[in-house]
Design brief:
Layout: E1 2-6, H1 12-15, E2 23-26, E3 34-37, E4 53-56, H2 66-72, E5 75-77, H3 84-99, H4 102-110, H5 118-128, E6 141-145, H6 149-160, E7 164-168, H7 174-179, E8 185-186, H8 190-196, E9 199-202, H9 216-221, E10 226-230, H10 239-247, E11 251-256, E12 269-271, H11 280-300, E13 320-327, H12 332-342, E14 347-355, E15 358-365, H13 371-379, E16 383-389
Parallel strand pairs: 1-2, 1-3, 3-4, 4-5, 6-7, 6-9, 7-8, 9-10, 10-11, 11-12
Antiparallel strand pairs: 13-15, 13-16, 14-15
Helix pairs in contact: 3-6
The chain binds nicotinamide-adenine-dinucleotide and (2R)-2-hydroxypentanedioic acid.
Residues 38-39, 58-60, 83, 277-278 line the site of (2R)-2-hydroxypentanedioic acid.
EC number: 1.1.1.399, 1.1.1.95
Enzyme class: oxidoreductase
InterPro entries: ACT-like_dom_sf (IPR045865), ACT_dom (IPR002912), D-isomer_2_OHA_DH_cat_dom (IPR006139), D-isomer_DH_CS (IPR029753), D-isomer_DH_NAD-bd (IPR006140), NAD(P)-bd_dom_sf (IPR036291)
């Protein structure tokens, strides 16, 4: 029986895929084989020795200590693109809220509780509506920082809304480039993008390269009166520089999914409680993808959409399956194959992949590897984590 510890609210559409005869699923389970979670911060959490994998039902993995996981041979998965449409739709809402005083206008109307004459009320609304006028987004320039799953969707949507769209992404994947309209202008540095855009939307991960990326210099480079939209992560925008840019009126609006105390009460800050991915559709997509990836890893050792291990997959062929993670240095695979050869264990098929400093292997063998073989493999120089999976048709 596999044990999967859950954190946060994971859609039942995903959790329901775990067969209850083979999986025990729940919060706080002891000695779990895996975690499945959303935004739960794991940096201060001790990992049980039993932990083989973590599935993040979502895109960002800055809540997980990835280097520690890699060191321990714990495979971390995310669900690329599964919540991208939800975020894209909220970015559009954010741009509209930054352009038109929808919120102020609605609050004004709801405040007229002392009025009971419809005619008088209509006169008052017409007299005061000029306070809530705004601009249109069509014809404006939208800049996207990070043209991955979300950024490319936002870029294409901007074009459909009649905007000019520019994008900056120094590591654009081939897949993302295919998704992107050729009408999106590619800009080769951040400040050049900031200079030409009325709206700038961030769609990059929070990591050591992007923390504080939007700083004093970036705000100074921005087109005066522009709007910044941040559905990516709080840490990407330097809070002091942000407040300064708002105080000086250089930044017209800050639309963000990550409120901070110093922004509360400021009408220029349009803040939401991290709800970019909070739609039933996105929650289901993420949970289903995370669950499928986790099951395939636990049952077959296959790795799809990991953020720290190489994509590795091999169909089952009736044999016993040995999987192991190792440091990406010479001779490790050779030593393991020698252990098998010395014990007359015949290899049916194998795959060996590497990613940076880590390598991962799947070796299918004809007969069950005994304890002696497994001990010798686990002891081979460079091997970090070993598993054996019984035959499966
Ligand atoms: N608010 C929410 O609920 C919510 C939901 C989903 C994702 N997110 C955040 O959005 C981020 C992006 O999500 P995604 O699904 O598009 O990820 P993604 O991996 O598909 O795309 C990220 C893109 O950013 C690019 N990039 C990385 N560093 C960059 C830099 N310094 N400058 C420019 N481009 C850079 C990468 O090359 C990649 O193309 C996530 O990491 C997460 O933090 C937030
Ligand atoms: O799970 C969530 O609600 C947020 C997910 C989002 O921040 C992500 O990075 O995918």
């Amino acid at each position: 029986m596999y044990k999967v510890r859950t954190y946060n609210k994971i859609s039942e559409k995903g959790l329901g895929l775990f067969d209850s005869e083979r999986y025990n699923i729940g919060e706080g389970l002891e000695s779990p084989d895996a975690f499945i979670l959303r935004s739960q911060k794991l940096h201060d959490e001790a990992f049980p020795d039993s932990l083989l994998a973590i599935a993040r039902a979502g895109a960002g993995v800055n809540n997980i200590p990835i280097p520690d996981c890699t060191e321990k041979g714990v495979v971390v998965f995310n669900t690329p693109g599964a919540n991208a449409n939800a975020v894209k739709e909220l970015v559009v809402a954010g741009m509209l809220l930054a352009s038109r005083d929808v919120y102020g206008g609605m609050n004004f109307v709801q405040s007229l509780t002392d009025m009971d004459d419809a005619g008088e009320m209509a006169k008052r609304l017409e007299a005061e509506k000029k306070r809530f006028a705004g601009g249109e987004i069509a014809g404006k320039t939208l800049g996207i920082v990070g043209l991955g799953a979300i950024g490319s969707m936002v870029a294409n949507m901007g074009l459909e809304l009649g905007m000019s769209v520019a994008g900056f992404d120094p590591a654009l994947s081939v897949e993302a480039a295919w998704r992107l309209s050729s009408r999106v202008q590619k800009v080769d540095n951040l400040h050049a993008l900031l200079k030409i855009c009325d709206f700038v939307s961030l769609h990059i991960p929070a990591n050591e390269h992007t923390r504080g990326l939007v700083d004093d210099e970036a705000f100074a480079a921005m087109k005066p009166g522009g709007c910044l939209i941040n559905f990516a992560r709080e840490e990407i925008v330097d809070p002091e520089a942000l407040v300064k840019a708002l105080d000086e009126g250089r930044l017209h609006r800050y639309v963000a999914d990550f409120p901070r105390p110093e922004l509360l009460g400021r009408p220029e800050a349009i803040l939401m409680p991290h709800i970019g991915a909070s739609t039933a559709e996105a929650e289901q997509n993420c949970a289903v993808m995370a669950t499928r990836q986790l099951m395939d890893y636990l049952e077959n050792g296959n790795i799809t959409n990991s953020v720290n291990f190489p994509q590795t997959r091999m169909g089952r062929n009736g044999g016993w399956r040995i999987t192991f993670a190792n440091r990406n240095v010479p001779k490790v695979l050779g030593s393991v194959l020698s252990v098998l050869a010395d014990r007359d264990i015949n290899v049916i098929d194998m795959v060996n992949k590497s990613r940076g400093e880590i390598a991962y292997n799947i070796i299918d063998v004809e007969s069950e590897p005994g304890p002696g073989a497994l001990e010798a493999i686990a002891a081979a120089e460079g091997v970090i984590r070993l598993r054996v999976l019984p035959p499966k048709a």
